[in-house]
């Protein structure tokens, strides 16, 4: 193992591969930070470049883009409250409020550091326990995935701050929008109204851009029109040392980061889920385990740490089934699979035997990319903060143009441009109505997963629901879902009873 690792170090330390990794991380950060551009787009655009490169150089470039884009999304999520990619949705929940309180540097610094630590933790998992974890994930079928989706949907209650009814409404609305298009399994068109563009449904990135970016632009434009704040904001870099937070705060976040890294790695291994889910799930778990859950959403470091650790931990997690079984875990690793195929390499169990040196070259490239990501984002903190000095009447049109270009670039359809405006108005309506957007996103992401696997599971068991309960893994997750709902109901009743008691005493 150590001989192969040293061989990988020797390969990565060549001038050509180091230059490619530096460029890959830098470009990836830009693609992650700009709303509408993603790691998928970055790797897809750079994939043709690897034709002329060798396997080691080409794959090192692709994994560097993966690392940079996953972490770079935190920049716009914190500074502008606009998630650059789906993996940073939960970062906006507390990162944005921290920026508004003047703690933007702390939020950025913590995001960068724990992104790095999450990436390193996932690489260690990838190098040590990849085969074992991949075998467990391979045993997951429709019954298990349905149970996981149901359990995750019950967590909507945790994110429904203020009004439970509004949270459930948002979740149901997200689920409803996810049903538009061709139905899974039987391929029947639903709610398309004879519009061909609706056959494929609404793209996840289009929904995110609309709900978070466009609605934020509308909201900020309204405040400018009413004469409030001509600039986005200002954060002073004076007296800021290091990454903007203390060692005490760092060590205080270690349990949260460890838990979030495990969640990110675990969800990353499961095909079809990815960092778009893991960052929200880890945020919810952090809120449930916190001593002050009521502060989440108002600007606490815990939320940023949970989200950024989990989404970057998903990098190594998603690589585990790709390298050991040849199964891509998400869209990014599907393109990475294409990168392997370009060079005539088939990922799978024999890869570690036939291409051991290349595998460890990829491991070392991931580690070097994580370190470079940490350095580039650390020295770029002051540059990122300067974005806040740009007047809103200049910044907002630029953001809007980038959102439109990003939406159009997904499928080269003007329809997607109109779609982000539609979801922008819905997101603005959420703001005005005090409806949390997070349940909407959870419903939109997990709704199709629950429906598809429910129908597949019923087909396997000849329409019998008992199969979901008798299967040990799915039965355990469904039991957890019931306990989660019961726990929240009991907690709500206790809170209501306490409030009534305090009112009576007053």
Protein described:
With 506 residues, the protein is mainly alpha-helical. Helix content is 74%, strand content 1%. It contains 24 helices and two strands. Helix 1 (2-12) crosses helix 18, helix 3 (39-46) packs parallel to helix 16 (331-342) and helix 11 (204-225) packs across helix 21. It starts with a helix and ends with a helix.
Write the topology of this structure:
Blueprint: H1 2-12, H2 15-33, H3 39-46, H4 55-79, H5 91-100, H6 104-128, H7 130-138, H8 142-154, H9 156-159, H10 164-178, E1 181-182, E2 189-190, H11 204-225, H12 247-252, H13 254-269, H14 275-289, H15 301-325, H16 331-342, H17 351-354, H18 356-379, H19 381-386, H20 392-411, H21 414-433, H22 437-460, H23 466-470, H24 472-505
Antiparallel strand pairs: 1-2
What would you call the quaternary organization?
single chain
Question: Biggest sheet, open or closed, and with what strands and sense?
Answer: 2 strands, antiparallel
SS-based structural class? mainly alpha
Which sequence of strands runs across the widest sheet?
Answer: 1-2
Q: How large is the radius of gyration?
A: 23 Å
Low-confidence stretches: 229-233
Could you estimate the helical fraction of the residues in percent? over 70%
Please give the count of helices: 24
How many strands in all? 2
Order of helices and strands: HHHHHHHHHHEEHHHHHHHHHHHHHH
Shape: globular
Alpha carbon gap, first and last residue: 69 Å
Mean of pLDDT = 79
Estimate the strand proportion: under 5%
List keywords for this structure.
globular, about 500 residues, mainly alpha, 2 strands, 24 helices
